[in-house]
Structures are given as structure tokens and as C-alpha cells.
Inverse folding.
């Protein structure tokens, strides 16, 4: 080990408690990779686990001084390898910065530390009579800091917006250890630049988020859920607009499953019941959140009746209990089974103009099958917020023979042709970096590099993620 690295590790030991630093053989394997990334054969230099903002600042100041690359980590549920360390990098884990510091019932806000899991924050809000609207399947493991750093989306974007819409204020530590505390609790604050948005979605390349003030929403008193079968993508869009108009802002989820996805989930995932017969081209999961069970239930049923009368839906299953609603949502959440039961597969998180999604899915299917006739392809997603998830599986392929790079090049090329985004809600990281040009212009990339150089002149924060600094 070089003398500089030895000096750095000693400086970190002097600043952190004994549990705050792992190095060499003491590094736990769980810090070596995130959920959907290969393991780098070379280990990281160390894992720093600070307990508070001051310790985060001390770690970054030391790394800045020695030019040591740093990889911030949250709950390690990412899908773009943004938190997977490469050999010799230092992991900065935020897992010890846990806890909800305050809930302000007058402002309708929550102040929370970055290492708090999303589920813990949701439960704290619920106990106080509020809703933290951000929600995604990894809620039990993902952390607030990572949610904000990747601008997470999830199940409720159509009503409440992406993660960035939930943030009123932030505290972040810059690459040189400077603490930027802007824990604003006000919805309106136009006093200069909106600095919080520099860090939301930046994937830890501009600074490390340590605390946040999140916007809370009134806790819904009731939920209405239904699964509908449809014949055409045009009917899917018409149902979306009808639901938005008839439900007056109460539509909180609009999940679309193509026939391929529905067939695989109900036919191959053990214990999964099919509430509607297979064979319909599309299935839509609708969710309403409201405050009056009688009125909202009547409005929801009236929507379904109107859609049936207009010929938009061919069949529907209405949940009459929370257990039935959970069973409908289980269909959508069954995607978590794919890595085990449908491997190997290439998974994509893209966004496109809503009106183009149906044509995109058809065009992509045709091109994938032309290249790999044996391929199985599924489409599903939030759609109401432009987000589509695609997975491609080649039966009989092994991890070694699976042509993931070729499939990615094809899929992202088609996304570019349709003027879409290669990442809707999971970030760029290392995994999607080669394809960023499909969704960002040279001028945009140049400005991103200018911001990176200004905030991280030594290039130590998550280097090589999102884009090459140049």
C-alpha cells in the first residue's frame, strides 16, 4: 500500500469510531456490489461508515486532500451499478445516518437522515397521520439518500411526482468536506438558485446528501383498486385520461401490463392467481386514494361502468377488501421474481412520450425477435408517467452466453429513435453510461461536465459514473 493511502486510512481511523472503518480483510462482502451489478475482482480500499454529517465531512475532506475516489452507498438496491465500488475506491456508506429527526404537522414536512430506509420514513409519517408519497418495491431496504440521489420514481408518480417533487430542503456535503445546509421547509422560496436540485438525481457525483426535508401529504382514508382488461393501447391511453378526468386528482396509480407479462406472471410464478383470464392484449391496474370510502367507491365504480359502456375495457376485477387489493398489486410486484425464475434476462427502465409507448413496444418486439427468434420479451410499467419497463430473456442461454451488450445496444438505439430516455427512474451509473448520448445532447453533456468540475475539481465523487468527466 502506498504511503498516501496508509496516511489516509490513519486519518480516517483517527476521526471515526472503531465500527466506522473497515479495511482489507475486514471489508464485508455486502459493500462490494449493489443489487444488479457484477462484482469487481479487486476490493475497495476501505468502507467508511460515518455516524453524522460531521463525520461525512471529515471523510470527504480527507479523501479530497489525498485525491482518493469515493463511492457513496445507500441501501444497495440500485440497478445501474452506480454504488458498486471498483478496485481501490473508498466506499462511503450512509447506513448509520438513520432516523427521522422531526415531523412538523403545521408545515406538513419530515426532516430525515439520509440512511433511513424508505419504509421506516413511511411508517413514521403514517404514525403521525401523514403520507410520505414516495413508494417503490425496495422500500424495506432502499434509503432516503439513495432515493433522492437517483431521483426515484415508483408507484405513485402519476399523482405525487418523482422524488425531487417530495424534497423541500437538503443538507449535502461537497467533495472537499464543505457542508451545505439548506433545510428549507417552505414550498415557496425563490431566494437565488435552487441548490437542492443540483444533488437530486446526480447519483452522488456532485455531493453526498446527508439530511432532507420531505414534503408530506394528507393520509388517505380509503383506497379503491381494480384490474381491467383492454384490447388496444389506444384504449389504455383513453382510460388513463378518462380516469384522470372522472376522479379529479385522486388517481394515484396506473400500472399497465402487456399480455406477455401477465401470462408469464400468472402462469409461471407459484401461488400467483389470475383475477382475469389470460389472452387480453393489455391489463391495467388502477388505484384511487381518497378520504371518503362511500363517495370514492361510488366514483370509482362509475368510472369502470363508463369505461365498459364506452368499450374501453373488456373486463374488470374490482377489489372489495384490502386482501384482494394486495393480490392485484402482487401481479405487478411479481417482477421481483424475474432475476431468479427468468434468468438470464436484460431489464430496461425507459421512458417515452405516452402516445408513442404502444408503437415503441411493437417495434422493439419485432426487432428483438428478428435478431433472436427464440427470445421472450415482456412489457410493463407505470405508463401514466411515461415509464415503461422491458425485460428480454433468451431460453436456454447461460450467464456466459447471454448477449446482454448486444440487446442493450438494440433497445437503447430504438429508445433514441423514439426520442425517449434511457433511464426513467433508476439512474445511469456505470451500466447505462455508454448509451447516455441517446438521451442527452452534446451541449447538455458539456454543461454536466462543467458542473462536475466546479463542485468536484479533483473528480473524487463517484468517478466515471453517469458520464466521463472529460
Amino acid at each position: 500500500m502506498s504511503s498516501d493511502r496508509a496516511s489516509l486510512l490513519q486519518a480516517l481511523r483517527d476521526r471515526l469510531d472503531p465500527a466506522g472503518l473497515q479495511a482489507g480483510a475486514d471489508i464485508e462482502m455486502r459493500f462490494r456490489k449493489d443489487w444488479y451489478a457484477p462484482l469487481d475482482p479487486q476490493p475497495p480500499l476501505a468502507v467508511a461508515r460515518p455516524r453524522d454529517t460531521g463525520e461525512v465531512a471529515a471523510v470527504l475532506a480527507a479523501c479530497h486532500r489525498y485525491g482518493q475516489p469515493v463511492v457513496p452507498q445507500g441501501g444497495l438496491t440500485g440497478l445501474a451499478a452506480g454504488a458498486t465500488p471498483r478496485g481501490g475506491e473508498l466506499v462511503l456508506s450512509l447506513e448509520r445516518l438513520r432516523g427521522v429527526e422531526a415531523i412538523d404537522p403545521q408545515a406538513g414536512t419530515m426532516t430525515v437522515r439520509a440512511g433511513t430506509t424508505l419504509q421506516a420514513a413511511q411508517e413514521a409519517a403514517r404514525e403521525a397521520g401523514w403520507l410520505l408519497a414516495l413508494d417503490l418495491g425496495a422500500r424495506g431496504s432502499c434509503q432516503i439518500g439513495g432515493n433522492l440521489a437517483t431521483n426515484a420514481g415508483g408507484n405513485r408518480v402519476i399523482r405525487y411526482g418523482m422524488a425531487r417533487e417530495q424534497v423541500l430542503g437538503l443538507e449535502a456535503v461537497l467533495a472537499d468536506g464543505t457542508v451545505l445546509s439548506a433545510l428549507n421547509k417552505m414550498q415557496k422560496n425563490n431566494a437565488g438558485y435552487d441548490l437542492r436540485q443540483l444533488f437530486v438525481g446526480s447519483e452522488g457525483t456532485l455531493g453526498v446528501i446527508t439530511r432532507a426535508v420531505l414534503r408530506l401529504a394528507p393520509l388517505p382514508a380509503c383506497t379503491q383498486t381494480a384490474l381491467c382488461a383492454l384490447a388496444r393501447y389506444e384504449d389504455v391511453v383513453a382510460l388513463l385520461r378518462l380516469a384522470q378526468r372522472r376522479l379529479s386528482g385522486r388517481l394515484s396509480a396506473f400500472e399497465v401490463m402487456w399480455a406477455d407479462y401477465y401470462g408469464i406472471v400468472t402462469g409461471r410464478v407459484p401461488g400467483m392467481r389470475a383475477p382475469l383470464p389470460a389472452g387480453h392484449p393489455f391489463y391495467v391496474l388502477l388505484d384511487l386514494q381518497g378520504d371518503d370510502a362511500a363517495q370514492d367507491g361510488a366514483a370509482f365504480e362509475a368510472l369502470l361502468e363508463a369505461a365498459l359502456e364506452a368499450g374501453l375495457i373488456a373486463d374488470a376485477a374490482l377489489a372489495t377488501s384490502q386482501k384482494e387489493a394486495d393480490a392485484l398489486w402482487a401481479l405487478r410486484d411479481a417482477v421481483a421474481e424475474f432475476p431468479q425464475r427468468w434468468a438470464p434476462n436484460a431489464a430496461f427502465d425507459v421512458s417515452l412520450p405516452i402516445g408513442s409507448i404502444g408503437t415503441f413496444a411493437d417495434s422493439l418486439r419485432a426487432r428483438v425477435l428478428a435478431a433472436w427468434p427464440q427470445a421472450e420479451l415482456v412489457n410493463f410499467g407505470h405508463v401514466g408517467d411515461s415509464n415503461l419497463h422491458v425485460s428480454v430473456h433468451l431460453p436456454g442461454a447461460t450467464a456466459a452466453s447471454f448477449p446482454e451488450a448486444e440487446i442493450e445496444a438494440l433497445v437503447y438505439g430504438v429508445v433514441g429513435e423514439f426520442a425517449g430516455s434511457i433511464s426513467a427512474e433508476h439512474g445511469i451509473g456505470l451500466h447505462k453510461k455508454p448509451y447516455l448520448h441517446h438521451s442527452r445532447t452534446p451541449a447538455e453533456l458539456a454543461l454536466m461536465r462543467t458542473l462536475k468540475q466546479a463542485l468536484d475539481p479533483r473528480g473524487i465523487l463517484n468517478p466515471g459514473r453517469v458520464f466521463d468527466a472529460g
